[in-house]
Amino acid sequence: MHLEQLEYIVEIAKAGSLTKAAQNKHITLSAISQSLSSLEAELGVTLFSRSRLGAVPTSEGRIIIKKAFEALGKIQEIWEEAQNYTNTLSGELRLATIPGPMNLLVDAVASFKKDYPYIRTEIAEKGTQEILEDILQDKLDIGLVIIHENLLKKSEGLGLVFEQLLEGKMVVGVGKNSSLAYQDSVTPEELRKHSFVLYNDDYVKWFVEDFAATYGPVDILFTSNNTEALRNAIRQNLAVTIGLDYSFVHEPHLQDSDSITLDLDIPYQQPVYYGWVRSEERHYSRISMNFINRLQYDLKSKKYPPTP
Description:
By secondary structure, the chain is an alpha/beta fold. It folds into 3 domains: 3-75, Arc Repressor Mutant, subunit A (Orthogonal Bundle), CATH 1.10.10.10; 89-167 and 272-301, Periplasmic binding protein-like II (D-Maltodextrin-Binding Protein, domain 2), CATH 3.40.190; 170-264, Periplasmic binding protein-like II (D-Maltodextrin-Binding Protein, domain 2), CATH 3.40.190. 46% of the residues lie in helices and 24% in strands. It is elongated and about 75 Å long. It comes from Brevibacillus brevis (strain 47 / JCM 6285 / NBRC 100599). Keywords: DNA-binding, Transcription, Transcription regulation.
């Protein structure tokens, strides 16, 4: 039995076919098929039922594949532990966050890179659905998204783990010269009299659609990831915007003397959090663990509102 054989059967189980597993591992179909046949002969157990539709683990195979996954995780832990002793933890960390809260990550990424110079860190802005798909396809290690009840329901059974970092609520951003600027809060009826500009985020879109279904249609001037465009529209009183409170407070397009935030006066807001997601089916590496610990410490030290 060889280590690569364990890696191959775990990949076949994830991919659902030998062809796709071979592509993911960058080897030939013949090589992965021969490796599987050799392991099955050595163990005396058929691990997969193979057909034109793909490869499905047998009842015995499911147990052995689970053991293989656990064994690979332990081997990875051994390498990481050894690197810790020599202070040369290396590898890569692939991150993605929803548009908006990137600024929450900058200091944590910078200090993490300083402490672990041999770790290659990639970070990108993507939509929630793309982040989840990339995690499931092993293109990302960690995704940072808005966690809410609807997302958790939609993600049931996908093998994803969600953890909360910050609790937030939806608030309204207006220009200092807006007719709303002297209020502490704004009602749905008052808000509907104004045009909206929205950050291009899945949860913001869902929230506004739900708001419109409950209180009546709203006029959306535009939706964009261009923070300068949003800022200009708010500053010139062409529109108001809506989003999570911590993004507004710390976002460059709202962190100036030309804009303020107001509470949204609605009877109930669904609990919503900024948090992280990873695959339950892949090893939670020490690299990822160390970065999340660093991010949690960084947010706490800056006194951003933590989860309860």
